[in-house]
Amino acid sequence: MAQTRKINRRKISNGQINRIVDILLHPYARRNAALWIVDGFVHTAVEKDPERSLTKFAKYNLPEIVYQVVSGANGRERSRAKKH
Question: What does pTM read for this prediction?
Answer without folding.
Answer: 0.70
